[in-house]
Batch of 4 targets.
Target 1
Amino acid sequence: MAIEKPSGKKLIKSSLSKEEMSKAFGFALSQPDLITTEDTAVIFYDLDFLDDRIEKLKSLFPETTLHALAVKANPLTKILAHIIQLGVGLEVASLPELYLAEKAGFTADNIVFDSPAKTHDELEYAIKAGIHINADSFDELERIAEILENHESKSKIGLRINPQVGTGSIKSTSVAGVISKFGVPLNDNTDRIIACYVKYNWLRSIHVHIGSQGCPVPLIIDGIRKVLNLANEINSCLKQHSATQLIDTFDIGGGLPVSYYPDTEPVSMMQYHSMLQENCNELFDGRYKLITEFGRYIYANTGWVASRVEYVKREKNYNIVMSHIGADLLLRKCYHPDDWHHQITVVDSRGNLKTGTDKNKYIIAGPLCFAGDVIAKDLDLPVVNEGDYLLIHDVGAYTLSMWSRYNSRQMPKVISYRNTNTFEIIKQRETKEKLFDFWS
Ligand SMILES: Cc1ncc(COP(=O)(O)O)c(C=O)c1O
């Protein structure tokens, strides 16, 4: 199989520009009572950009595809309530995520339940509700079999396969290495996997997830191709056994890397789709209903955070900015600084872009009480002053959902907007009372 490298042509806007962010922030600051002095940091979501991502995705795949967007990437309930109107579903990885999905109005046929640690009770709940479940192991399949003996169910059941195609450049987001905590490793288990599909006539879906940021798209395609070969082989075998039903659903777990650098050209969804068509054409000829589970692609570039500069420590050869976002929101960046990047733009207290370059480089530190709470080093920036704001780009996915409670800092307010000038608070800044409840 020849996997073509993408051409790199820019087909879809890959991220929001600093000009767009500073314009929206300036407008937001000028609204009465939208941002108050206690809002040391505010997270923003551009709904136009979000809608565009979802519409592009929907326009490329067959109409029957269920796009189950990953709740783990962004569980904000107002966002879930928004995207349901765009005709997508949700991928959930815990019972509480399932609860969020149900509360937002998603019905069983639009929810996919993944997790490597589903309890018996969780499985029973999902089976009774008729939710699509991807089993992560042979043992989980047995649990499901036991539950199905006692319950009628509309659930579609799949098995998650680890195609063992290798890891990308970020180990913590790569799940298709030879050893992975997720799924059933393919290489040593092919016969056993096929035997399960022959044995269980309710096992008629198959799931594969290769990884997320840092995984080259050809690696992702390679993994999908391997599991597609397996699905085709299982179906031939089922035909030989005169099975009444074949595998009819193919679930491509998420994982399209996105751009975290303003001037880079990531593989666009359109390019990814073309690569899939070229290398995995059976996914588009109607024999399988498709499920996708994108998270990062949908949300990462949609959100940004404005973090107020509290102090600037000016030293002979460097400056340190003390600001209000650190490892609480950007956990991955602080713990694995070499794997992650967030572009930082400096604006003044009214949201105007600052220009020029200070003679000293900057270290950008967060507010938490540990030395690793640093989100950037060696940065060339305009002169930064107390009261300015740092606009930290591309924080829409795997940020609030990974919020750290260290130092009991309050979760920031979240504001969505359209046209850079129409705003809605979609989550209030956490109150001290709610924080107390959390620890009580
Ligand atoms: C099973 C599953 N589906 C979907 C996703 C979403 O992946 P991404 O955000 O990279 O699209 C993940 C992420 O870890 C996952 O584990």
Note: Residues 217-240 form the longest helix (24 residues).
Target 2
Amino acid sequence: MKDKKVIIVGSGIGGLAAAMRLATCGVNVQIFEKQPYPGGKIRTNNSPAGLIDSGPTVLTMYEVFEELFRACGEAIENHLEIVPEEIIARHWWRDGSSLDLFSSFEKNMGSIRDFSGVKSAQEFQKFNSLSKALFRLFEQPIIKSPKPRLLPMIIKGGGHLKALYKTLVKQRILYDFLEDNFSDPRLTQLFARYATYVGGSPLMSPSILALIWNVESQGVWRVKGGMNQMPKCMENIARKAGAVFSYGKSVDEILIEDKKVQGIKLESGEKILADIVLFNGDPQALTTGLLGAQAKESIPHKSSLPRSLSAYVWSFSAKPTGKKLAHHNVFFNSNYKKEFQDIANGIMPTDPTLYICAQGNNKDPTPSSTNISRFEIIINAAPVPNTKIFDKNEEFQRCKNITFPILESMGLKLSLDPKKEMLTTPFEFEKLFPGSSGSLYGRSPHGINSTFKRPLSQSQIKGLFMAGGGTHPGAGVPMACQSGKHAAEMILRGLNLT
Ligand SMILES: Cc1cc2nc3c(=O)[nH]c(=O)nc-3n(C[C@H](O)[C@H](O)[C@H](O)COP(=O)(O)OP(=O)(O)OC[C@H]3O[C@@H](n4cnc5c(N)ncnc54)[C@H](O)[C@@H]3O)c2cc1C
């Protein structure tokens, strides 16, 4: 099968997962990546305290990675040190209250009882069971299946009819659903926030996203040395199996003739022929013609619309004083609805919720007031219209004047003089991930049918496949990894290798 050539455009997690699997099966795989590094959204920035993870930091569904490595004849623990977090996140509110959540149900019952009373703990118990039931319904027919299948979900749903009815049939919005479930508005806010994990506004996402809590509660892991170790390691394994990586090579066009893939054309004009092309960029790049006029017809135009959330992302090093931070921290605002109304209106939220990943430094991963630590702060934002140019100076000033005073008012002081280069804006995300509109999670999860509308791995062009967070089963590091599996299996089946 070495005579069959597969070109992968992009070395994000979806592209890397597919490269590992295909190369292990003996396929001739070449990866073209426009950046000088693998990982895509798993980016880093330099700082005096070492490399800062400036993309994803919450690693869930570890078993997806274990399975990938096993399928390639490797044990993940021989390559990466991945440790479970005891505290999955520390949450702070404006009234000075705070709540730690754990990957232990019993501990969560205790901490919620102490935080908000017995009634809230009982409400949490009910919500936790529902979230688990929804995830069980979703896992096989949706996440693990190359094509989402409704019927098996309904059949399997026999034992969970109440959960299905409450979420799927009543088609409620996540925020409203949670408001009915929790009498403490802080808990509504906390569990509603999980919609943002897949780029949704809690005010517009379907209540089925209540299942994300179950994913988080099953465990959050940390990669020693940083999340950026994961793509580097995946690249090494794919290379070992024979895959060839070319960095700093932007693909300008997917060559197609008579609705069949012929290869790619690089920015330099060089053409490279291939039997199969796997596109790991945002599917909207295809429909908007960024990969050539012929590729526009590869997927339905609406399959990547509407767009998911973008973000303003700070990464910097500083000394933190005033608050004892965990690795993952959330500083909530007092008017959560207003934040997402601002975003829906396309403006920077005037009073946002701030997620802070406190990464310590190279010697000690625990943040402390005596040492300089690395930080990533994420603020949800609207995607950007392709027609508008944004002024970085102006965005930087506004974002700076919002972010750091909010933290100080909540008791966290960071010793730094913010610089423009420490901030990545939605407009810059659009430049980093062309055709994305700055959306970080592909198609938005809004609407009960969004799961069924995402592009699948196989396109309408023969030999053109897709993998990544914009493709089924959706965004997030493990999901993108799973989409790489779906694409690789489909390609192997086409090449008669399975
Ligand atoms: C700030 C931030 C925080 C996040 N937090 C989390 C989190 O905590 N947990 C989590 O699970 N997920 C999180 N996510 C989402 C997660 O990072 C993504 O869903 C996932 O990494 C996407 O992987 P992907 O396979 O789609 O590839 P991407 O990461 O989108 O990479 C695509 C690659 O393709 C390349 N490419 C595109 N077009 C071309 C072309 N024409 N030629 C050559 N190369 C091209 C790009 O340069 C890029 O390297 C976060 C994302 C961001 C940005």
Note: The mean pLDDT is 94.
Target 3
Amino acid sequence: MEEWNAATLRRLKLWVLAVFLSTAPSFRLSAQDYRAQALRILKAVPLIDGHNDIPDAIRERGGLDSVDFAVPQPKLMTDIPKLRAGAVGGQFWAAYVPVTTMDSGPHPAVYALEQIDLIKRLCAKYPRDLAMAYSAADVERNFAAGKISCLIGIEGGHAIENSLGALRMFAALGVRYITLTHWRSLSWATASTDTARRGLSAFGREVVHEMNRLGILVDLSHVNDGTMSDALHAARAPVMFSHSSARALSHHSRNVPDSILRLVAPNGGIVMVNFNPGFVSEAVRVYEDSLEPRVRALKAAGTDTAAIRDSLRTWRARAPKATLQQVADHIDYLRRVVGADHVGLGSDFDGITEVPVGLEDVSKFPDLIAELLRRGWSEQDLRKVAGMNVLRVLRDAERVATEGNAKARRTDAQR
Ligand SMILES: [Zn+2]
């Protein structure tokens, strides 16, 4: 019989420990346990998402009367039952203004007004579940009353039509952030997709200062790096990225590069992670970027439309997919580079056409929180990411606005 030497004994001890750890319930939480813990966290703090495009999706479907938000809508990523299942406590609804309004159709300002009107009517139509919020205190009050807060963000600075008066009136209507550009540059701010290296103009800096004075958050999702940097240097209040992820993980121009991330903590701002697969996964981004040149090559070779459509179908079937775990990777990465105090969630649901596996709609937020718990995140940090960080940013912006206005009144009195 073999002698029991020290090495064998050590191996045996390790094996017993491994078996114990893998079976003892107190040592190994199951997926359900993490989900239950996530839901407990979201009972204590409101989960606030930075960007959801349901107002535009509703407009496209013919307006509020065409969509019953109170019952499950299989074709939408957002409805009240899903928001409740996802334990959502507050949502920035995007008053998205297409850049095409700069060329034709209703004026951008009118379009923005119509979308703000739609958000307010949506919120008023379901008073048992939704309530408008214009401040951090409103969000907390609504949350205590068991209601989901509706916050308004305008997507596209073209909505102000170069008018500080219009900007002030949007503030009076309760708009809490404006994304400076959408896909196209303005005369005063440059979009992320623009090859120009310009940033903010002198008027652009004036817009930023006026937004700070009014307590409207400056949203830097969609602008180019020059504009991000200019706005961060001009801002007197924390800025936000309402729906952008980390460029180090997916090299998309809509994501935030490390050089800018380093400016966010000193500014006190927040980066709210986007779930758009092309922003989340580098493989998906490369695949998406390859589509146009591939179609162009087929066309140049004289391929007919039906064959091109077939090719597209084949490519799509084999396309890489983003995952919930990769979204968690962005959140991990941002915590490492900017700190847990400056990270949030900005799904872009109903504005994106593809979704990460595991994050299909607003009901899946607790699964993301559960994944972060599994990775060893503390409850305290997750409360921040879920909602406390963006509430702090809102409150700081409110304070800067109040102080700025008090200072202006003092200066007036001295005149
Ligand atoms: Zn967007």
Note: The beta strands are 47-52, 88-96, 130-132, 148-155, 175-179, 217-219, 240-241, 270-273, 343-345.
Target 4
Amino acid sequence: MIRIEGLGKVAGETRILRGVNLEVAPRTVLGIIGPSGSGKTTLLRCMNGFERITEGSLEAGGVRLEAGLNEKEYQRRVKQLRRQVGMVFQHFYLFPHLSVLGNVSEAPVYVLKRPRAEVEAQARQLLEAVGLGQRAERYPESLSGGEQQRVAIVRALAMRPEVLLFDEPTSALDPRRSNELAGTLRGLVEQGQTMVIVTHSMKFLEDVADRVLYMESGEAVELGDTAQILNDPQDPRTRDFIRHAD
Ligand SMILES: Nc1ncnc2c1ncn2[C@@H]1O[C@H](COP(=O)(O)OP(=O)(O)OP(=O)(O)O)[C@@H](O)[C@H]1O
Ligand SMILES: [Mg+2]
């Protein structure tokens, strides 16, 4: 569950986000679209504490951030937030010196202090679920780009976050891999995962998103069901963007 109210972000002289209101229901996927520079990545980074919000509030995975909190309390909550909200970066850096299993197990063992045997058993299950059961002992360099990406997703999932965030996950994938990724993500949603995905691909949105948010100039312009936003946008700004999308 994510609830964002009146969220604003000002960095120095620049206003990046203004008055963003948003709810994401559990076990659903929210897609975020909008022109370059509209604030999509910044909003995503606010959702796991990489950017400090300067107005309003944000609640995710049971942790609430408010712009007015003092720095110490804010950072304390960000720490809690990061345990509930995972992020898969556009350039997911796997550790080259660790096997697939090692990459996935590292953080749960060293950050969450969970027993290695239990973590590895869960890691193998997750790898199996994304079709990488046979790759556990391999090293990242011997995997295809799409396989490496799935390892990065499993690595984030191994922390058992309530919410997973993705920034342009298909930008380096061909249409077939993109399709596979959509299938993988929908499988995770069926198992209870909540996700937010920033993407420029309309096809990918159709395949994975339940709801879509259109952003422009740091504002949440229109939020609706995927089919409605893609086929029948109401705001003229959304309409203009969709008309020019591929
Ligand atoms: N720390 C910062 N200080 C000042 N301006 C910033 C900062 N971070 C981001 N911006 C600006 O805020 C705007 C939104 O950036 P953001 O990266 O969120 O856009 P985006 O929607 O993800 O774009 P793209 O589709 O190109 O990835 C941009 O104009 C960017 O230059
Ligand atoms: Mg971006």
Note: Residues 2-244 form a domain with the Rossmann fold fold (CATH 3.40.50.300).
